[in-house]
Amino acid sequence: MNILVCVKQVPDPVEIKFNSETASLIRACAANIVNPFDKYALELALQLKEKHGGEVTVLTMGPPQAVDALKECYAMGADKIVLASDSLFEGGDTLATSYALFCAIKKTGEFDLILYGKQAIDGNTAQVGPQVAERLGVAQATCATGIELADDKVLVAREQDDCQEIIEVKMPALVTVAKLAVEPRNPNIRRKIAANKIEMPVISAADLEGIDAARLGLTGSAVKVKKMFAPPVRGAGIKIENETADNAVKALVDYLSNAKAI
Amino acid sequence: MSEEKFQVIIIGAGVAGSAAAYTLAKAGREVLVVDKGRAPGAKNMTGGRLYTYALKELMPEEWAEAPLEREVTREIMMMMTPADSVAVDSTFGSVNQQSYTVLRARLDAWLAEKAEEAGAMMVPGSTVDGLIIRDGKVAGIKTGDEELEADLVISAEGANATVAERAGLIRPVELKDVAIGVKHVIKLSEEIINERFNTVSGKGAAVMCVGECSKGVSGGAFLYTNKDSISLGLVVDSQSWKNSRLPLADIAEELKRHPALARYIEGGDLVEYSAHLIPEGGFKSLPQLYADGFLLAGDAAGFVVNRGFTVRGMDYAMLSGIAAAETANEAIEAGVYSRSILKSYESRLQQRVLKDLALFRNSHDYITRTRHVYKTYPRLAADLMRNIYNVDGSPAKLVSGLVKKTISGRVPYFDVLKDMFKGGRSL
Amino acid sequence: MGRENSKNVWVFIEVYDNKIRNVSLELLGQGRVIADQLGEKLVGVVIGDNIAGLANEVIAYGAETAIVVSGNEYKDYSTDGFANALTALVKKYAPSVLLIGATRNGKDLAPRVAGRLETGLIADCTDIEVNSEDRLVEWTKPAGNMMSTSICPDSSPQMGTVRSNVFKKPAPDYNRAGEIVAEDIGTKADDIRTKIVEIIKTVQGETVNLEEAEIIVSGGRGMKGPENFAILKELADILGGSVGASRAAVDADWMPYAHQVGQTGKTVKPKIYLACGISGAIQHLAGMSSSDLIIAINKDPEAPIFNVADFGIVGDLFEVVPLLTKEFRRIKNG
Question: Does the keyword Electron transport apply (chain C) (predicted)?
Answer without folding.
Answer: yes
